[in-house]
TrEMBL record, chain A:
InterPro entries: ACP-like_sf, PP-bd_ACP. Residues 1-81 form the Carrier domain. This is Acyl carrier protein. It comes from the Bacteria.
TrEMBL record, chain B:
It is found in: Cytoplasm. It comes from the Bacteria. Its EC number is 2.3.1.41. One of its GO terms (molecular function) is 3-oxoacyl-[acyl-carrier-protein] synthase activity. It catalyses: a fatty acyl-[ACP] + malonyl-[ACP] + H(+) = a 3-oxoacyl-[ACP] + holo-[ACP] + CO2; (3Z)-decenoyl-[ACP] + malonyl-[ACP] + H(+) = 3-oxo-(5Z)-dodecenoyl-[ACP] + holo-[ACP] + CO2. This is 3-oxoacyl-[acyl-carrier-protein] synthase 1. SUPFAM superfamilies: Thiolase-like (SSF53901). Residues 2-420 form the Ketosynthase family 3 (KS3) domain.
C-alpha cells in the first residue's frame, strides 16, 4: 500500500472529525492533526479506532502517541501492516 | 441584590408533543402520549405501556453534529439538548461565537445519564477491550453530560451544572436558577431537566410494583391521577426547559415575557415521621408549600391554579390533603388543580420541568388544561375538594397565580410560585 493510497483512506476517516475542510482537502504528509485540522484531542482515540478497523491492525499506546501528524501516522500504519504480513 | 426574575423562553420534548406548539395543542385537548411498548412486553414487564417522545428520523441533526450523533446513545442528553436549545432560541438569545457569555448559565437536572451507553461499555470492558470504548463514554454517562452539552452549544460562561433530586429534579432546577438570578450571580439561566428512557430506567420501578399493570391493552387510559381506579404510574420520559432572566435583562432586550417567578421552596421530610425513602412526610410537604408562598409574598387565597405532582398512585389523596391543609382551602374554595401526568405519564427526573412549562403556558395563554382519566374521582379526594376544582375539559380563563410542586424519592420536595406578568 503506497502513501497516496493511505492518505486517501486517512482523509475519509478524518472527514467527520474536522470542520476545516480546506485543510483536509490539501492534506499532505506534513499536515498536523491538532494544529492544522483543529481536531479535538479527545477524538484522536476515535480516529485511531477507525484506522485500526480500516487497515485491520492494532495500534499500541506507544505508537499512538506518535500519531500527531500525517507522516507519523502513515509510518505507524505501514509498520503495523508489515508486522501483520510478517 | 434582589432581582425580579421572569421566564422568556420555553422548550419541551414530551410524549404528546416534541415542541412547545404541539405540546400546547396536546395539553389543551387532553391528548395522551401513552403507547404500548412491545419491548417491555417481550421483557416480561408488568407495565407494558410508556410515554415516549416521537422523534422523527433525522430530527437530531438539527441539534447535534453528525460526529456527535455517531456514537450518541444517551436519550436523556438528546431530549435535554432539544428542549434546551429550543428554549434558548424561543427566548431570542444570541449564541456567542468567540467568547463565553459569562452572564448566562444552566442548571439542567437528570436522574441518570447514558444508561444505554453504559450498557454497551460494560460489555466492551468485560470483554477486556476497554481501549475500544472511544472518547464518548465519559461525557455521555457523567450525570452532568446534559448540562455540559448545552453549555458548549450555547457558549455559557456562568454556572453550568446538573442537579438531581428524583422526581423533584425539574422544579428544583428552576428554583435554583431563579435564586441565582435573584441574587445577582447570573443574568440568564437555562433551567430544565431530562431523563433517560428504556427498560434499564423503568425496570426498577416495575420491580417495586409502583407502575400500573391493568391497562396494557388500553394505553391511553393507563395514567389515571386522582381517580378511584388509579393503580400506579405509567413510566415515561422527556425534557422541559425554561429560560429564566432578570426582569431588567428581559426588558432591556424587549423579550417576550411568559410569566414571573415570585418565589419557591425546596425542603425534605428527613425520612422522619410518616416520611421514608419512598413516602413523603406530610409535615414537610405542607411546610414546603407554605414556605414557597411566604417567599413569594402570596396569600393562600390568591392561588388560582395548582399544578400538582399527582402520579396516579395511592398517594394522590394524601397530596390533595396536603395542599388543602397548607392552603386551608377545601371544597369549592380549593383552587383548580391539574396534572399533565394524566396525558404523558410520569417522566421521573424530566417531569418537573415539563410540568413547569405546562404551568407557564397556562399563565401565558389564559387556559387551564383538562385532566383526563379521572371521571371516577377518588372518594377520599371527593371528600376534601369539590369535583369542579378538577377540570376534565379545557377552561379558558386568565390565571394570575399558579403554584407548582413535585415530590420525590428521598422524601424531597420543591414548590414554586408563578405569576402572570402584567407590564409592571
Amino acid at each position: 500500500m503506497d502513501n497516496d493510497q493511505i492518505i486517501n483512506d486517512l482523509k475519509e476517516i478524518i472527514t467527520p472529525y474536522t470542520d476545516h475542510k480546506e485543510a483536509l482537502e490539501t492534506l499532505t504528509e506534513n499536515t498536523d492533526l491538532l494544529i492544522d485540522l483543529k481536531i479535538n484531542s479527545a477524538n484522536l482515540v476515535d480516529i485511531i479506532l477507525d484506522i485500526e478497523e480500516k487497515f485491520g491492525i492494532e495500534i499500541d499506546n506507544d505508537s499512538m502517541t506518535k500519531m500527531i501528524n500525517v507522516k507519523e501516522t502513515i509510518a505507524v500504519i505501514k509498520e503495523k501492516l508489515a508486522a501483520n504480513a510478517g | 441584590m434582589n432581582n425580579r426574575v421572569v421566564i422568556t423562553g420555553l422548550g419541551v420534548v414530551s410524549p404528546n408533543g416534541i415542541n412547545v406548539a404541539d405540546f400546547t395543542h396536546a395539553i389543551k385537548n387532553g391528548i395522551s402520549g401513552i403507547r404500548h411498548d412491545q419491548q417491555l412486553k417481550d421483557l416480561n414487564f408488568s407495565c407494558q405501556i410508556v410515554g415516549e417522545p416521537q422523534i422523527p428520523e433525522g430530527y437530531l441533526l438539527n441539534y447535534f453534529s453528525a460526529l456527535e450523533l455517531r456514537n450518541l446513545k444517551s436519550s436523556g442528553i438528546e431530549y435535554g439538548v432539544i428542549a434546551g436549545l429550543d428554549a434558548w432560541k424561543d427566548a431570542g438569545l444570541e449564541i456567542p461565537t468567540d467568547e463565553p457569555d459569562f452572564d448566562s448559565g444552566t442548571i439542567f437536572g437528570t436522574g441518570t445519564s447514558g444508561v444505554d451507553k453504559f450498557r454497551i461499555g460494560i460489555d466492551i470492558i468485560d470483554n477486556g477491550q476497554v481501549r475500544k470504548l472511544g472518547s464518548g463514554t465519559v461525557v455521555q454517562t457523567m450525570a452532568s453530560g446534559v448540562s455540559a452539552f448545552l453549555g458548549g452549544k450555547l457558549g455559557l460562561g456562568n454556572m453550568v451544572t446538573t442537579n438531581s433530586s428524583a422526581c423533584s429534579t425539574g422544579t428544583e432546577a428552576v428554583i435554583l436558577a431563579y435564586e441565582r438570578i435573584k441574587n445577582g450571580q447570573a443574568k440568564r439561566m437555562l433551567a430544565g431537566s431530562t431523563s433517560d428512557k428504556g427498560p434499564y430506567i423503568w425496570g426498577g420501578f416495575d420491580a417495586m410494583r409502583v407502575c400500573t399493570y391493568k391497562h396494557n391493552e388500553e394505553p391511553e387510559k393507563g395514567s389515571r391521577p386522582m381517580s378511584e381506579s388509579a393503580s400506579g404510574f405509567v413510566p415515561s420520559v422527556g425534557a422541559g426547559a425554561l429560560v429564566l432572566e432578570s426582569l431588567d435583562s428581559a426588558l432591556n432586550r424587549g423579550a417576550k415575557i411568559y410569566a414571573e417567578i415570585l418565589g419557591g421552596n425546596i425542603n425534605s421530610g428527613g425520612q422522619r415521621g410518616l416520611g421514608s425513602m419512598t413516602a413523603p412526610n406530610p409535615v414537610a410537604v405542607q411546610r414546603c408549600i407554605t414556605e414557597a408562598m411566604k417567599s413569594a409574598g402570596v396569600k393562600p387565597e390568591e392561588i388560582d391554579v395548582i399544578n400538582g405532582h399527582l402520579t396516579a398512585t395511592s398517594k394522590d389523596s394524601l397530596e390533595i390533603e396536603n395542599w388543602a391543609k397548607a392552603l386551608n382551602r377545601y371544597g369549592n374554595d380549593f383552587p383548580y388543580i391539574n396534572t399533565v401526568k394524566s396525558m404523558i405519564g410520569h417522566s421521573l427526573s424530566g417531569t418537573g420541568s415539563i410540568e413547569c412549562v405546562a404551568s407557564v403556558l397556562q399563565i401565558d395563554q389564559d387556559f387551564i388544561f383538562p385532566n383526563i382519566n379521572c371521571e371516577d374521582l377518588h372518594p377520599e379526594i371527593d371528600e376534601l375538594i369539590d369535583k369542579s376544582r378538577i377540570p376534565t375539559t379545557l377552561i379558558n380563563k386568565k390565571i394570575s397565580i399558579l403554584a407548582k410542586a413535585n415530590f420525590g424519592f428521598g422524601d424531597v420536595n420543591a414548590c414554586i410560585i408563578f405569576k402572570k406578568y402584567n407590564n409592571g
